[in-house]
Amino acid sequence: MGIRVQLFVFIHGITPYYHYLVSSGKITKRRMKTKKELKEEYKHMKFPMGVFQIRNTVNGKIFVDSSTNMNAKWNRNKLQLSVGNHPNKELQKDWNEFGEKAFEFEVIEELKHNDKKDIDYKKEVALLEEMLMDEMQPFGERGYNKMPKKK
Description:
alpha+beta; 32% helix; 4 helices; 151 residues; GIY-YIG endonuclease; 3-stranded antiparallel sheet; 2 domains
């Protein structure tokens, strides 16, 4: 196993940019992707989407949430809880009391991506969350979610 060193060379005003990889005595020159290429690539990425819960292993209470990018949403929840700024005050209180190790992130239901362009994944995830909230009832003594307002 050789040493791998990345050397980035940026010359202002000259495109495309290149980076050089040095590994096992070989130097490889690669063109860096432009900002536009990176944005386009990001648009086509498929993130895990669906409904998840944050479960308190001490008292069994759960917080149910959903997203079209569950990894990002979990990271956001974890950051908010870690800095003491989560919008759910009861969940924040228990996080402060029991600590991070007392909570688990669990996927309840994941939606699979479909190649059809006309699917509104945000709407689909919201409907799935509503169905699972009705089924699981994570309110009051059972969870941290607030009761939905009656329509």
